[in-house]
Amino acid sequence: MKNGSNEEALLRIQEALRAAVSAVSRFVPGNVRADYKPGQDPVTEADRVANEVLRKVLLREGEGWLSEESVDDKQRLGKDRVWVVDPLDGTREFVAGIPEWCVSVGLVEQGRAVAGGICNPATDELILGSRETGVTLNGKPVQASQREGLAGALVLASRSEVKRGEWDRFRGAPFTIRPMGSVAYKLARVAAGLADATWTLVPKHEWDVAAGVALVEAAGGFVRDPKSASVRFNSASALLSGLVAGGPWLREAITTILDFGFPILD
Fold first, then answer.
1. 190 pLDDT above the threshold of 70
2. Which class for 107: exposed (0-12), middle (13-18), buried (19 or more C-beta within 10 A)?
3. Cβ neighbours of residue 44 closer than 8 Å, sequence gap 6 or more
4. Is the pTM of this model over 0.85?
5. pLDDT tens digits, residue range 125-168?
6. Could you tell me if 185 and 89 are in contact, meaning their C-beta atoms sit under 8 angstroms apart?
7. How far apart are CA 2 and CA 83, in angstroms?
């Protein structure tokens, strides 16, 4: 197996996910103290512990590092290969004891997310994939939804966005909207064919979505930003304007409803 290949990276990702999950297993979801960052985003000791473990297992000489729980080292901008990780995506759910959180690891090469993995220990789901290997769920090959239209589709939505009313415009749509925490987990479920699509039209950091983008694209699905452009990583700001992802045949239908919406039903 060639050093530096996506296959080698996947082995490293799998090892890192398992090590991080083991390290945070001593913390009890729903019974953990949270501090709050500016903007009221929660962070726990589990986030910090997972970050240390991931960095130790993943990072090699010549590679860059971008993590929600690390000070951003801008030297990553000069690296061709960068690890983009969220040590615990869905911290709000973790603190609340809701089983919608995961450890998320993405590998970016020359601005593209080429390999990734997420592990949700609460649901016993390990989703891994790369452009070279395809995607697996707990070791079994999976692919993105092959649904050809949105009628009857399952679309995963941010629980916070739904509470704020940002999905009210889709109340007349012919698909089921399921609120869920952790954008990384939502993207991974789309990659595994467990949901047909997901989108968020509010800014997200690269660490929120790098692994999920790699997984959806490796599974044959599509990912774009709200302006229909491809998603690029390892930017100076590490901020994306939003994200749209789904099965390969849904791109046009999703673009249409995002542009024009549906009549709201009373």
1. yes
2. buried
3. 27, 32, 33, 34, 35, 88, 91, 94, 95
4. yes
5. 999 999 999 999 999 999 999 999 999 999 999 999 999 999 99
6. yes
7. 19
Domains and CATH numbers, the chain: 6-142 (3.30.540.10), 154-260 (3.40.190.80)
Tokens linked to 89: 């995506």
Location of structure tokens 């997310």: 113
Mean pLDDT, the chain, integer: 93
CA distance 179 to 194: 14
Q: What's the pLDDT tens digit per position in 35-91?
A: 887 767 889 999 999 999 999 999 999 999 999 999 999 999 999 999 999 999 999
Q: CB atoms < 10 A from the CB of 88, how many? A: 28
Is the per-residue pLDDT at 252 higher than 80?
A: yes
Which residues, in sequence order, are CB contacts of 241 under 8 Å at separation 6+? 203, 225, 226, 227
